[in-house]
Amino acid sequence: MLWNRSLVMRDVETGSLWSHILGRCMEGDLKGSELSILPGVMTTWGDWLKRYPETSVLDLDLDRTAIEYKHRIFENGREFVYGLKAGNQFKAYSFAYLEANPVVQESVGDLNILVAFQADSGRAFVFSRRIEDKVISFKTEFSSDGKLVDEETGSLWDPWQGKALDGPLKNQTLEHLPGLVSFRSAWETFYPDSEYVEIEEE
Fold first, then answer.
1. How far apart are CA 99 and CA 196, in angstroms?
2. Where are the alpha helices (DSSP H) in the chain?
């Protein structure tokens, strides 16, 4: 079922209703309980298959209308946002902004973050830039082969794993943080105090 254009799920054990965007029980025996949010990725099948060619897939019987609707998420850069939570602070980046700024690094709450965005697939990851007691800075564009490059050492990093593949920081790994692709209207409803980052109008 939907509430404010956002999925509501019912658990099997108690029949309680949960908001997927909040990870919180809204009604029922478990009202007020919250689930831990784990990092994930939303992308195209082609993009995923390049990365994980041995993947099996649940093939849902979708008609053409449903498939075209799902593809809108990669075509309308102003309707969709990539949102994240840091402590009690919330921030959301429009897809249009991320398309123009594929590597974003800044502070949200107490976290020094890196957002890496791939426009063709709508794939986004968010990482902590802190390794032990040091904050790592990155170049604002991907390398020619789609890697992240840090400013301090020139090490190459995998944007899927946040892991240094080559260079002085090889095998160091950034902490993967949870982020969420959402309709902007839904994010505004559930996180009304969120800060938004938009592309400037010409």
1. 15
2. 45-51, 64-71, 95-100, 184-190
Report pLDDT for 62: 58
Return the exposure string of 1-28: e unless at least 16 CB atoms fall within 10 Å of the residue's CB, then b.
eeeeebeeeeeeeeebbbbebebebeee
Domain that holds residue 4: 1-36
Are 73 and 27 members of one domain?
A: no
Cβ neighbours, 10 Å, residue 38: 8
One domain for residues 154 and 98: yes
Shared-domain flag, residues 60 and 154? yes
Residues in the chain: 202
Contact 18, 3 (CB under 8 A): no
pTM confidence score: 0.82
Cα distance between residue 156 and residue 145, in whole Å: 10
Q: Please report the pLDDT score of residue 58 as a whole number.
A: 76
pLDDT in tens, 88-106: 889 999 999 999 999 999 9
